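Title: Prediction job returns without error message
Component: structure pipeline
Severity: low
Priority: P3
Assignee: unassigned

Description:
Job completed but the reporter wants confirmation the result is attached to the right record. Sequence as submitted:
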Amino acid sequence: MRSHYCGDLRASHDGETVELCGWVHRRRDHGGVIFLDLRDRNGLVQVVFDPDTVDAFALADKVRSEYVVKVTGRVRMRDEAVRNSKMATGDIEVLGKALTILNEAATPPFELDEHGGAGEEVRLKYRYMDLRRPEQLRNFQFRSRLTHAVRAFLEGQGFMDVETPILTRATPEGARDYLVPSRTHAGSFFALPQSPQLFKQLLMVAGFDRYYQIAKCFRDEDLRADRQPEFTQIDLEASFVEEEDIMGITETMVRSLFKELLQVELPDFPRMPFSEAMRRFGSDKPDLRIPLELIDIADLLAGVDFKVFSGPANDPKGRVAAMKVPGGCSLSRKDIDGYTKYVSIYGAKGLAYIKVNDLAAGAEGLQSPILKFLTDEAIQGILERTGAETGDLIFFGADKAKIVNEALGALRVKVGHDLNLVEGDWAPLWVVDFPMFEEEDGQFHALHHPFTMPSCSPEELKSNPEGALSRAYDMVLNGTELGGGSIRIHNPAMQRAVFEALGISDEEADEKFGFLLDGLKYGAPPHGGLAFGLDRMVMLMTGCDSIRDVIAFPKTQTAACMMTNAPSPVDNKQLREVGVQVRKEED
């Protein structure tokens, strides 16, 4: 129906007769001459109708925003004075000769140029309208180019694209499964995969050697800006590899993506042990662009009478840390109260601080409600260890180590952005040497997943599970976990030892993972892999604030689709077919 895309016309097409199809982005009537900005996937072009073309002019007078039309006309150069350098087609326009209205449009629920005034729920309800915005279209064009580049790179490295099942069985992988009742097996359920983890390991057992997949994954968990109930992974696995092999392949891939798509040369990827990341930044995905660090001061405060500090300082599971904020004396009491409320989200009971108004003035130059509770030696030790200078502010965290890390780690990022302390554009790193397990209420849980290879023997794992490290690695970029992976367990004895540490009996292991354990018995090669969050990668590379901006039809933070009103009730006939009865909660 068309000869060209609207956004592709240039001065080289001057004098050509063209046929265009698209949406009316804007209509203007200038003294009897009607201008239509016609929009399609590739951009905008200005079409001019004058009264000499009677029929076309009459139709142009009737069209409104978002009408779907076909235009036949001649490309001509615009006068020098009215050329638009902000438009790719700004040097030319199309003199309309014929116009066909292919479809009318109701008044849009919001103006595409003024979408900021529309709430997110409205934009998600009319997502097909929201996606017409050029900036949204650019996000998905970028996403398409990125997935193409990923496939080309991995195919060039000998990886083979293999699809794994969407209907599988429920396995404990850290989050709740989405369950699907089976009609043919009454009382039984499929689960939607949280990842292709077990299947890709079995592909290595099958001898496929190098596998990849742009995989759909599903997790029934609480949502946030970078999390959705269904998301996409760049998933890969390889046989006969060590950590350096997988890290080298994936780092090269990410570098090539940034170079090809953004013309960006990423800096070096430093290696940082998990313990160092938690100690210095309170996070296993630190944003290295922010020059703020957490400093341990428990030894300086273990003997003070102030129990808020001395309690955690003497608790083996506690932590007392300080964070110096250069120039932080500029923060008002209102600002500090706001930060106190912010850290309470992470379980912190308060936020102590010291303002260093004048270092040379000694105690007289310090300002804080907690000074009266601290000894002069403790205060001097804190100032020296943090390297505080006049004009700086010191924040403190004192509680269980987990709470201090989460609270000060999040505060570090927020203060860094609020005070414009972020340095540079991109800061990648590898976080390595993760603990194999984390302990909660006396029970061990796999920090990554239970198929991660420990860096010790099965005997050492059994004797000292809390000290075991894993052969896992996470790629972090600007404070976001871009991807994570590990060398996998490839022998049954080690897998049994890990299950034992997690409190999974042989019977439970056979019932839930029997197919994997059986596979490992038949000559499983050493193997490992990594999975990138494709949505997160696109979000970062396009500068979006939320992965909802790079997923075509996303869910809200309550895991609902505003457009289709999903999830929704189903009728009793369907429920009976799958053997499910819905019981309403009692009031």
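Comment from assignee: result matches the submitted record. The CA atoms of residues 24 and 66 lie 5 Å apart.
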